[in-house]
Every structure is written in structure tokens, then in C-alpha cells.
Amino acid sequence: MTDTTPTRKPAWPDPDGHLGRMLTLITAALRPPPGRGRIALALALGLVTHAAFAAAVLAMIVAMGFGMSESLGRFPWPWAALANALLILQFPLVHSLLLTGPGGRWLSRLLPHGGTLATTTYALIASVQLFALFAFWTPTGIVWWRAEGAWLAVTLTIYAAAWAFLIKASWDAGAEVQSGALGWMSLMAARKPRFPDMPETGTFRVIRQPIYLAFALTTWAVPVWTPDQLALAISLTAYCLTAPMLKERRFRARYGDRFDRYAARTPYMIPRTGRRR
């Protein structure tokens, strides 16, 4: 006897997938429960955060596109060297500090509804830090190499590919968290933030730290080389290689054996070549 019971098609988009979570979050934010003060705070912080995020990304793309040879910083030398060093150090230090227990508690107390808004305030602070680094760098005025002609087309293509890789990795990790949308949209909807699960798909299927790798690649795939760009690339690459160790410690504490199994089959930052035995 043939079973004629129709099979139920899986929901699309998957409510637990990246797109499904984003659509659910946006839909809930567009239909907020009453609460003018809460809504006003959420909208204001969301607007400021996304504007700062866009400004930071634009400043990074443009500044590194010129090899850090064009910027707004005008500190006199040799004080400019100290100012540039502080600009480099402030990002990894504060960025990592806010991910610690005390840093997270400080974020939660920074604003009303701070626990819900923590991801948004974190993204806002990181965006301001990155904008300051790339917009207020004081150039040395020395240019070692500038791509021209066909080489310019090649290097710009590689540079764009590095940024595309960073965007894809950020999406795979959870765009709502990476962009800061999770906090303010959850507050709009008067709901507890729903964090994405431990990332294991997309670029995270190949390596465990694709965001950090992509971020480091953007600093090397540039069409103009200067002493400024070299100092920035070395510093930020060192950060990208070491900072994920603290992140993985948190993941190991949160996910336990599940993360250990994932780490055992997925390399840290260099993809495996060839077939595994």
C-alpha cells in the first residue's frame, strides 16, 4: 500500500538560519509594543550605531586604499609617531577588554536597558574606535609603491575580494550581532536578544576564525604601500592571530565538548589542503 500522505516542505527561510533570524528580528522591531521612551532610545541608538558603523567601514576602505597616505591626522613629528601608536593600540585593547566579564558588566550599566543593548553599544564603541584609527592617522608622506595600469586593476580586485570575504564571514557569524542591530531591534520589540548559535557553517566550516583572517587580509591586499600601511598591517595581523584565542576560551566554556569536536575537525585560520585520511 502506497503512502499518499503529503510531505510537509521545510519552512523557507529557515527560522533558525541567518536570513530567518534577521527577518524575524526585523518583523518584531517593525511591530513594537507600546513604550515611547523605549522605542525612542532604541531608534536613536540604532541610527547612531549604524551611521558610525558605515563611517568606520568607509574610512577603512578609503584610508587603506591609499596605503594610509591620506588621512586627517596632522600631529607634528616625532609626536605623530606616538599618536599613531596610540591609535593602533586603543582598538585591540578596548575591543578585547569589553569582551571580558568586567567589560561586559560595564556595557550593561552604560545605558538604560543596557543588558539588551550591550551588542549595540559594543558595535558603536568599536565603530568609533576604527573610525578614529583610520581617519585621524598622521601620514609619514613616504610612498614606497603605488599600483598602476594593469597592476592597479589586479590589486583593487584582490582588495575587493578581501572585503567580500570579510562581509561573508560576518554574515556567517550573525550579521545582527556584528552590525549591532540585535540590541536595539530587540529593545524595540521588547524581547530578549536571541543570539545566533555557535557558527559552524559557511566560512566557519573551513576555518574557525574567518572574520579575523579576512580582517587581516584587508590590511595586506592594498594598492599602495607605505611605512604607515606596513606598521598597521603588522600590528592588526598580530592582533587577529592572538585575539581569537580569548574568544575560543569563552566558546569552550559556553559550548563545552561541542566546541572541542568542532575545533578538532576545523583548523584555526589556515584551511587544510588535500583530503583528510
Quick synopsis:
It contains ten helices and two strands; from the N terminus they run αααααβαααβαα.
Structural class: mainly alpha
- Helical content stands at 55-70%
| String of helices and strands | HHHHHEHHHEHH
Strand content: under 5%
Strand order of the largest sheet: 1-2
Total beta strands = 2
Return the average pLDDT rounded to an integer: 90
Number of domains: 1
Structure description:
The radius of gyration is 21 Å and the shape is globular. 30% of the residues are buried. 65% of the residues lie in helices and 1% in strands. With 277 residues, it is an all-alpha fold. Strands 1-2 form a two-stranded antiparallel sheet. α2 packs antiparallel against α7 and α3 (79-97) packs antiparallel against α5. The longest helix has 30 residues, at 36-65. It has helices at residues 18-30, 36-65, 79-97, 101-110, 114-135, 149-178, 181-188, 210-220, 227-255, 257-265, and strands at 145-146, 224-225. The chain is built from ten helices and two strands; from the N terminus they run αααααβαααβαα. The N and C termini lie far apart (44 Å).
